[in-house]
Amino acid sequence: MTDKIIVAGVPVDTRHWIGGERVASADTFTDVSPIDGSVLGEIARGTATEAAAAVAAARAAFPAWAATSRAERARVLHAVADGVEKRLEDLAQVETADNGALLRSHRRGVMPRVAHNFRFFADWLLKLDHEDFETRGHTNHVSWDPAGPCVLITPWNAPLMLATWKVAPALAAGNTVVLKPAEWSPLTASLLADIAAEAGLPAGVLNVVQGYGSEIGDTLTSHPDVRRISFTGSVPTARRIAASAAAHLTPLSLELGGKSPLLVFADADLDLAVDLAVEQYDNAGQVCLAATRLLVEEPVAEEFTRRFVQKATALRQGDPRDEDTDIGPTVHPRQLEKIDGFVRRALAAGARAVVGGHLADGRYYAPTLLTDVAQDAEIVQEEVFGPVLTLQTFRTEEEAVRLANDTRFGLAATVVTGDPGRASRVTARLVAGTVWVNCFFVRDLQAPFGGARQSGVGREGGTWSFDFYCDVKNTVTAPKGWKDHG
């Protein structure tokens, strides 16, 4: 096995990062680019041995990092952000090669957001406070104590950004981290380890183990020394993690699937509504928050559909490194097969493809809009995680809310209306962790993020992140009983 591979001209170490050192494994797995199917390299495949070593390194590094002052932890996190910005082009190029998302998006939005994740939580740490309050003359003081080693398991659709949503607050809180990236897109996590080391993050504070399967996952999530587990991914995997963590009652934060609705009322700005609907094809539909169920009020449904088809068919699908490309490839052949299976079954059940409905060339799936779908249909109820939308109509506000809430998920929702009163009424009744009104994907790190129902457990962002990654302690002090130490 070669220790380093060259991806888009960038050297990437294929070994784990444990205790401040590169560690090889006896076995490897093949990392393939979704752009053209080319092999990027053989990646060290971790087992229980590497997983346990990473937790041990995190445990050993925890006392010193937890005792490090807030100011110093913040300084190091800002240094990591500096390193991300310095290597922004490298990170963008490698991530595009690895997961197929648009290079222009990585350059302009995603990688700058990675740096922002570290800066935000560094700054939030310095102002994290709770005003003391009194109870019958006794003083209550709330503090956030570092919890210990954290296992962070991240997905393949936005690998580095979603990883650093977790890594940054966990480190800011004074914890140590074992990061396990998705096996379909592991490369930028390795680069992050290099950047963190160069920024002065002490050995063992951040560890990266690569691999897949039950052996490495179960070792990490059932380990008695792990104090927090944060996972973004599918509901079935979350169930396995929860069962594994139950042995030690390890606290979990789970951000899971979505089947989010986009409600378009007859009083909406239709151009805005269509723009927001077509935006759901971003990242080839591989976005957990995507509003994949279009619910349109009957009087405007025909005109909405006409405008949507015109705009959607103008999208350019192709090489994500091309500046003019709007939609890149699907991340992996297995995911492509899954998407196609959903659509084929929907068409066989009577759905109609107004747009797309088929595989495109290579590893691409054509942007798809299906109509004539029943509310209880698989394509309406289950997360596809690809560029596939459904369109249903409604007649009343009551029906719109009922259809919107009628899945097992509750991650997000989008409402498009020209009536602020209606917006207020509808959003109050929607089951979702995030609701956007006349906009989409406006995300502020100080706001809570998470899902309802089977879309997740817990909230992260701002103080909510520190509430999760810390043991929140209240100290109650009596007004008397002090001895004179003068």
Task: Describe what this molecule looks like in 3D.
There is one protein chain. By secondary structure, the protein is an alpha/beta fold. It is built from 15 helices and 22 strands. Strands 16-17-18-15-14-19-20 form a 7-stranded mixed beta sheet, sandwiched between helices. A 6-stranded mixed beta sheet has the order 11-10-9-12-13-21, sandwiched between helices. Strand 12, helix 8 and strand 13 form a beta-alpha-beta unit. The longest helix is centred in the first third of the chain and has 25 residues. The chain starts with a strand and ends in a 9-residue tail after the last strand. The mean pLDDT is 97.
Largest sheet: 7 strands, mixed
* Rg measurement, Å: 24 Å
Q: Multimeric state of these chains?
A: single chain
The helix fraction, in percent, is 25-40%
**Total of DSSP H or I helical runs spanning 4+ residues:** 15
Strand content: 15-25%
Strand order of the largest sheet: 16-17-18-15-14-19-20
Number of strands: 22
Mean pLDDT across all amino acids: 97
Given as residue ranges, the uncertain stretches (5+ residues, pLDDT < 50) are none
Q: Globular, elongated, flat, extended or rod-shaped: what is the shape?
A: globular
Class by helix and strand content? Answer: alpha/beta
Our measurement of the CA-to-CA distance between the termini, rounded to an integer number of angstroms, reads 67 Å
